[in-house]
Design a protein that fits this description.
Elements: E1 6-11, E2 19-20, E3 23-24, E4 28-32, E5 43-44, E6 66-71, E7 79-80, E8 83-84, E9 88-92, E10 103-104
Parallel strand pairs: 1-9, 4-6
Antiparallel strand pairs: 1-6, 2-3, 4-5, 7-8, 9-10
Length: 110
């Protein structure tokens, strides 16, 4: 996953296998919500429940806050050609069990 800009990502999804100290172990994430009008209608589709066999060693790199974010929420003012341009992004859903229980709290409508 690669975007135009790098984003400062703070992930509050403690139940995600990629979360370590509010940082992400992935090279980048994807936010879904093509029809989203608000943050509650978005989600981090890169979410992976702790203990899931989907987690591979290739995605278990050093946790970091700066990453690429691909975004399908085209009605968000930070979306530019499906790349997030927000300097800081918060993903929330501390007790999420599935991706749809997460959200991009940084979403702002156009």
């Amino acid at each position: 996953i690669g975007g135009v800009d790098m984003n400062d990502l703070a992930c509050g999804v403690k139940s995600c296998a990629y979360n370590e100290s509010n940082c992400c172990k992935r090279e980048g994430i994807k936010v879904d919500g093509a029809m989203a009008e608000n943050s509650a209608s978005t989600c981090c589709s890169s979410f992976c429940e702790c203990g899931s066999p989907r987690v591979t060693s290739a995605c278990e790199c050093e946790p970091k806050r700066v990453t690429n974010i691909i975004c399908d929420a085209v009605k968000c003012r930070y979306n530019e050609d499906k790349n997030c341009t927000a300097k800081h992004v918060d993903v929330t859903g501390s007790h999420a069990m599935i991706a749809s229980e997460t959200e991009c709290a940084t979403f702002v409508g156009r």
